[in-house]
Design a protein that fits this description.
The protein is α+β, with helices and mostly antiparallel strands. 25% of the residues lie in helices and 19% in strands. The chain has 11 helices and 12 strands. It binds flavin-adenine dinucleotide and iron/sulfur cluster. Flavin-adenine dinucleotide is lined by residues 25-33, 71, 98-99, 103, 106-108, 110-112, 114-115, 163-166, 212-213, 238.
Length: 329
């Protein structure tokens, strides 16, 4: 591990000022960053500890029924909030299915969106061709072990996936990432936050250097929402595929609107917009539900070793939708 300087900020303004200095990386819970330092994925000159920055660890109501979640809230504290549990169950479930209880006590919600791919070549102790680790070196997964890789939005430069669970729930909720930098602030839809390989493999998100996440904003409540995570064991494991769904039912019990996002199928949560458009007016247990999901999944182009994930995605999306609609799988 390369030596680095350590600094601590206690106000957000001080953090923003200090984060402008080239070579600076901020530290929140440290559950991702420490691994990157150990593996050489990150080699900052200075680590700026923001865990004591005041005001970023609150959950506050927004006008119109929404919620503002401070970036430094621990995952378990977000899931334990009674408003989140009642009105946005999809987020609570996605958090409960993330990592382990110990990690969730330390890991922060803002930084969860910034975690990097779990592609084994990317996380390798030994140098292997990986365009994300060493630009221009190639992609060992493209003709290697590609069984936990992309169904959508990949290129020959990189076939990896983004592993965050909460990001999938937040994409289905049309949540926004609130950021600030010395130059001002932005509200970025979670669905536009991560960068696909076609737009470059030199960065994972649209965050600019020195730009920090301040909060995540949720719009109106989505009590009819659910998260399904399919993994090789039932705890402490990243998803093979996950699905988040929200459903609003009309008076006749038919679907008025629905949103579905898949996780671990691309370098960003992948919304099944084609299916969403076909679901309006269906009864939640209508067999046409599966046909709508299939129409969206027909747009997938799985890398060969990950084609098996299509069937998992189909089942997960269906189960998430039916659970969100209150009719169970
Ligand atoms: C063994 C293991 C299993 C895991 N399993 C899962 C899982 O199943 N599902 C899942 O979703 N996640 C999982 N995770 C990921 C975990 O949730 C993340 O590591 C965690 O949320 C990151 O938060 P942190 O506060 O520890 O980030 P840190 O490690 O402190 O920071 C990560 C990155 O974010 C940057 N950063 C931190 N805060 C900000 C900010 N406010 N603004 C801008 N940049 C910032 C840091 O500079 C760094 O680049 C797992 C992690 C581990 C180690
Ligand atoms: S899939 Fe992406 S992260 Fe994995 S080896 Fe290829 S370039 Fe690297």
């Amino acid at each position: 591990m390369r030596p680095f300087a350590y600094a601590r900020a206690t106000t957000f303004d001080d953090a923003l000022e200090a984060a402008r200095e080239p070579g600076t990386t901020v530290l929140a819970g440290g559950t991702e960053l420490l691994n990157w330092l150990r593996l050489g994925i990150a080699a900052p000159d200075r680590v700026l500890d923001i865990t004591h920055v005041a005001g970023l660890d609150r959950i506050e109501p927004l006008a119109g029924g929404g919620l503002r979640i401070g970036a430094l809230l621990r995952l378990n504290d977000v899931a334990a909030d009674e408003r989140v549990a009642r009105d946005w169950p999809v987020l609570r479930e996605a958090i409960h299915k993330s990592a382990s209880a110990q990690l969730r006590n330390l890991a922060t919600i803002g930084a969860n969106l910034l975690q990097k791919t779990r592609c084994a070549y990317f996380r390798s102790d030994e140098p292997v061709p990986c365009n994300r680790r060493t630009p221009g070196s190639g992609c060992a997964a493209r003709n290697g072990h590609d069984d936990r890789h992309a169904l959508f939005g990949w290129t020959d430069d990189c076939i990896a996936t983004q592993p965050s669970d909460p990001a999938v729930a937040l994409a289905a909720l049309d949540a926004r990432v609130v950021t600030r930098s010395a130059g001002g602030g932005r509200r970025i839809p979670v669905t536009d936050f991560h960068v696909l390989p076609a737009d470059g493999v030199d960065r994972d998100t649209v965050l600019e250097p020195g730009e920090l996440i301040e909060a995540i904003e949720l719009d109106r409540p989505a009590p009819g929402s659910a998260y399904v995570k399919v993994r090789e064991r039932e705890s402490y494991e990243f998803a093979l595929v996950s699905a988040a769904a929200t459903v609003e039912l009309g008076d006749a019990g038919r679907i008025e609107s629905a949103r579905i996002a898949l996780g671990s199928v691309a370098m960003r949560p992948w919304r099944l917009t084609k299916a969403e458009n076909l679901l309006a007016n269906l009864a939640p247990d209508d067999p046409a539900l599966t046909a709508a999901i299939d129409a969206a999944l027909a747009q997938a182009q799985p890398v060969p070793g990950s084609a098996y994930k299509l069937a998992i995605a189909r089942g997960a999306a269906r189960r998430a939708l039916m659970t969100a609609a209150g009719v169970g799988p």
